[in-house]
User: Fold this.
Amino acid sequence: MADDMGQVPEVQAPATASGSKYAWPAERRVLGTEVRRVDGPAKARGAAKYTYDINRPGLLHGLILRSPHAHARVRSIDLSAAAAAPGVRATLVIAEPGAKVMYQGDEVAALAATSEDTARDALRAIKVDYEVLPHLATVEQAMRPEAPVVFEGGNTRTSDVQEEGDLEAGFAAATHVVEGLYSTQVQTHVCLETHGCVCEWDGDRLTAWVSTQAVHGTREGFAQSLGIPQSNVRVICEYMGGGFGSKFGPDAQGLACARLAKAANAPVKLMLDRKDEHLAGGNRPSAYARIRAGAAADGALTAFDAQTWGTGGAGQGAGFPLPYIYVFPNRRVVHTDVYTNAGPQRAMRAPGHPQGCFITEVLMDEIADRVRMDPVAFRLKNLPAEAPNAMWRRYFEMAAAQFGWSRRHATGDVTPGPIKRGFGCAANRWGGGGRGTRAQCEILPDGSVVMRSGTQDLGVGTKTLMAIITAETLGLPVDAVRVELGDSNYPFSGGSGGSTTAPSVSPAIRVTASKALEALAARIAPGLGVAPESIVARDGRVRSTASPSTSLTWREACQRLGTEPVSVDGEWEAGLSASGTSGVQMAEVEVDIETGITRVTRVLCVQDCGLIVNRMAAESQCLGGIIGGIGFALFEHRLLDPNTAQMVNPNMEWYLVPGLSDIPDIQVTLVDQPGRGVIGIGEPPAISTAAAVANAVANAIGARVRSLPITPDRVLAALRTDRAGGTE
Amino acid sequence: MASHEPPRPGARPPDAEPLPEGESRLDFSRRNFLKTVGVGPLAASVVAARTADAQAVANPVGPAAVPIELTINGHRHALSVEPRVTLLDAIRDRLDLTGQKRVCDRGACGACTMLVDGRTIYACSMLAIEAQGADIRTVEGLTNGTVLHPVQEAFCEHDGLMCGFCTPGFVMATVALLEANPTPTADEARRALDGNICRCGTYKGVLEAALTAKGVRRG
Ligand code: FES
Ligand code: FES
Assistant:
């Protein structure tokens, strides 16, 4: 998941596969078109079986007892009453006496019973005696010099100073200096399908249906933690209801589920409930930055000095790239991870980047206002050099033209009435890349085709991507290909995180399908009296380029296999995919200065995605990222009570994610760079929306909200206290 | 919509339903209101707004399992559930009809949306025993053989689904909307579907699907 934290991305050369015999075809029939999801009908019919939907004969329901305290030591734990409760088949202690729980929702014990309701009843019968210990609910509490030391080695950990250039000279060269404190909140993933699994043992062999972004990684996790060979574990995840970075291994609930199933000698389903999910399923850490930055009179950035901190909860870091994208020749950053008694962070869609982007892009607008430059012109002046993966200059210009940026007014909408409108912009970058996927392709004598890989489809359209590439390669329609994925019994593929799936899977499918076609050609060429190399597959037919009269339907060609199908393995190879992408977004908002309510009315996104596999799915990825970004900008906020460190809104009526009425008009422009091969774009579109919205709000109201989310109270407070300088 | 009827337990908030004639609507939706103002547990109050069901008071049932009969997608099912079991859990766990999902379990996301006597309800917030005698419809009942219902077809066509976990709920809410109002305006569709949440962000496709699905018959 980790992306480089450096300021200027590594320049990636375009994929250079033109020499490979598996290179992407220059003329593409299916690739890059709009293809409906192959599993759309199953999902729309409610027939797709998610982990949560797996019902097994004799299935028991598992539940986890979680700590109500933010920090405590378990003195004693008594499961006897629970074990004797009606319907209970197995119990498990997770936090042994003496162990500490470090956040509300930390796992303490688990049990399995014949129904969820009986399990819940029994959970109440577990007696735990806690010694409640002092806790830290906020970064401010944890950073106080007199704070109790809650974490071994201290409540904070400060990194080495990152410094480049000559900061003093940079400030000496600055005509304008801007100082400010910027921050972003803790956001939770809110996967609609919560974390969880169904575990079933057959002797010492475990089958686990897991809602996971990594079937092979989860197999390894189960095997290691349970002390059984990986060959004894099968992990299945054909459908999953979202992960966004939070679902990579069996986790505590998976291991508890496996142990309960073993003890009860029956299959167990253990899914987190919504509250557990918010508390323990992961989150995006908070970010804070106190920054002093300078620019010369002509708008050239000269200096950047930042102290940053944030919390990833109990014992977890909270790093983010800063400054983001723009070139500050002289800079210094000192970062401190702050530990608090809250659920630990996990990777979340573009880890670190929305935070770094918001902080930098808001600062950029503040400096632009001070220099009295248009924000786009100011950015163009301070961008790093162009490269295939760093095309912001071009994208800003494209976006500005499409968006009508020239209609942007100077900061502070002076039109009468309470509704103020404004424009904002922000850029993004992401690394991604991916390698290592393997696949298997079968061509059966009746003409049917199966493509298999042990990757998983998080909802991004991986199954459809595999079908498209196979169909393109074999000259078949997409629906002629059956795709199987989401099973650790299939050939190895890595976890789906960091926009690595498409660049890892696509080349493997291309290579494997090509090899299958070669094998088919080798088998049928002698009978046709042509050289195998002369055989091509196109438009549902198999032809020989050497003999125009040789032309069979796909099915006729496959019938020549007799009874023995073609079955080949293939794997990822370099040159068909790349890492590194760049993009730009612009937003328009309406802010009601009487109520403080912000509405996003328009978002435009220009996103590079290399060679597009499925235009429809790529666009949906961008839409999804932007909508997530609107949630981050305006609504989402994990609120902890500062006194108790209990989450105040562990549900979906107080933890707010965008609904249909919050969705603006969104325009997506995908920039096709086919020469670069396939590039994943799960993360990048999620990065810049909040920053663009924040800048649009400032442009509208002439005051700056420097903290996310931009709630009405913050808008009203900014209006009262913080009038920004205008560009007039 | 018969607005004089008290809301059923689990009934979705009124803004999820087409507007009764002559009634005006506030200019913001329930979700917007909650989000932007940050107050007002409206969903909870709807759930709490129980009708005084004289029968239930006179003949208390439970806590042990009781036999009930549910009519789902036109088929009768006899099952035995504790009175506390929700309609959603009864159907998912006991009848293995797993299309409708449980996501929030408290009337805030719409993933469990079913149609009960033609009206959308949050099946996580209605008890199974209360649904006896009603005509219950789930996503599984829409498909005629392998031919998709026009709403399902439209969701596929406009990519109104990604992970698909919210989809059955959206599909049912859209069916309810179009059965009552086959040609909704964008605003009407937005209001009708505002009780549903999609985390993958498929709203644009969902709205297009709701506005273009053709051939849904009035329910
Ligand atoms: S699960 Fe019923 S409304 Fe969310
Ligand atoms: S498609 Fe994933 S939650 Fe809606």
User: Anything to note?
Assistant: The pocket of FE2/S2 (inorganic) cluster (ligand 2) is lined by residues A 192, 242, 459; B 161-167, 198-200, 202 (CB under 6 Å). Chain B touches chain A through 70 residues (CB under 8 Å). The radius of gyration of chain B is 17 Å.
